[in-house]
Write a structure and sequence with these properties.
Elements: H1 2-29, H2 32-41, H3 45-48, H4 57-64, E1 72-73, E2 89-90, H5 91-103, E3 115-117, H6 127-146, H7 150-153, E4 162-164
Length: 165
């Protein structure tokens, strides 16, 4: 009887371990389109996960295709050390934040995918302001594709009046 209970416990343990391991692999190998699709359809972190995928330079071009999408989304992974969470999120703001992290060789560009004006740090940017900011990222990316150097990669995109929070 004890042997059967022990074996059943082992099966449950390894089943849970395998499920967790699979989720970690998804974070490691997540495709941009799959991730954005999950972001748009998720209402909780159960299907999306809490961790931002490990995107790299090669993913910036695909992320750029979503940079003008101002869809409101309920969930988006944030920096795990942040104790603050804003909702709803604006997809293009989240995408720019993700690109910013890649550009600066960080997983998370700041605590939150939230950019604000320094003169009014408690107000969110309007969707029109976010589209204007997206144009600056597009301009940067066009230049970076032509000259993919560290100097261009880390060039300041945000005006001094904007800041990632």
């Amino acid at each position: 009887m004890k042997t059967k209970l022990f074996l059943a416990s082992l099966i449950v343990f390894f089943g849970l371990f395998s499920a967790c391991k699979k989720k970690d692999l998804d974070v490691q190998n997540q495709k941009v389109d799959d991730f954005i699709s999950k972001v748009k359809t998720s209402s909780s972190f159960d299907n999306l996960g809490y961790e931002l995928p490990n995107f790299s330079d090669k993913d910036i071009g695909r992320l750029m295709t979503y940079i003008r999408d101002t869809t409101e989304v309920l969930v988006f992974p944030t920096n795990p050390i942040s104790s603050f969470y804003t909702s709803p999120k604006i997809l293009n703001e989240c995408v720019m934040w993700t690109i910013e992290g890649i550009r600066l060789n960080k997983k998370y560009a700041s605590l939150q995918p939230l950019v604000r004006e320094t003169s009014s740090p408690f107000n969110r940017l309007t969707k029109n302001q976010l589209i204007d900011l997206a144009a600056k990222y597009e301009q940067w990316y066009d230049e970076y594709k032509k000259n993919p150097t560290d100097e261009v990669r880390t060039r300041v995109i945000l005006d001094s009046k904007y800041r990632w929070f």
